[in-house]
Automatic annotation (TrEMBL):
Naturally occurring in which organism (per UniProt): Sporichthya brevicatena
Record's protein name: DUF3180 domain-containing protein
One Pfam family this sequence matches: DUF3180
InterPro entries tied to this protein: DUF3180
Keyword Cytoplasm belongs to the record: no
Length: 171
């Protein structure tokens, strides 16, 4: 049985990744090496993932609402496709938490010496990536919420348009 994502788990992942991001910056800077740059595309890719997750959630919610309101133009929702959306959401939220924590910790490390040359650019890119990662978490949780079947007692379809369990799989 697939359980909903628990926010404390995501918070723990973010805190752990944040400590790794902060410590990595501290170790690299302490060894005298050049700090790793954060590409500007990191925030863009994460923002794109967040947009896809939010778009899927809005689309699925609209289709389920149309079915519930019994509109004649309502398109059926494929249960397997919805299950794939849930898997995508479940996989994206911990990744978003890890990225938000990692980039957030690195940003926190860089904030101490923000005035040094080059650090403000790296820090700005890391901060943008951390914010985009939070958007990934929000989009994933929204998609997971939209795809949740109310009740879920397994006796039949809880939402109109969604098929219940197949006869050969029902207890």
């Amino acid at each position: 049985m697939l359980r909903p994502t628990r926010p404390p788990v995501l918070a723990a992942v973010a805190v752990l990744a944040g400590s790794v991001g902060y410590s990595a910056g501290l170790l690299i800077d302490g060894s005298g090496r050049t700090l790793p740059r954060v590409p500007a595309t990191a925030a863009g890719v994460l923002a794109l993932l967040a947009a896809v997750l939010i778009g899927l959630a809005v689309s699925t919610r609209g289709r389920l609402r149309a079915i519930a309101e019994r509109r004649p133009d309502a398109r059926p929702v494929n249960a397997l496709q919805t299950a794939r959306y849930v898997v995508l959401a479940r996989a994206s939220s911990p990744v978003g938490a890890a990225m938000a924590g990692g980039y957030g910790g690195y940003t926190l490390f860089l904030a101490g010496d923000w005035g040094e040359p080059g650090r403000s650019e790296i820090g700005t890119n890391a901060l943008a990536a951390a914010v985009a990662s939070v958007a990934v978490i929000a989009g994933a949780l929204f998609l997971e919420h939209v795809c949740r079947v109310p009740g879920g007692d397994g006796d039949g379809p809880d939402r109109p348009g969604l098929p219940g369990p197949r006869a050969d799989h029902a207890g």
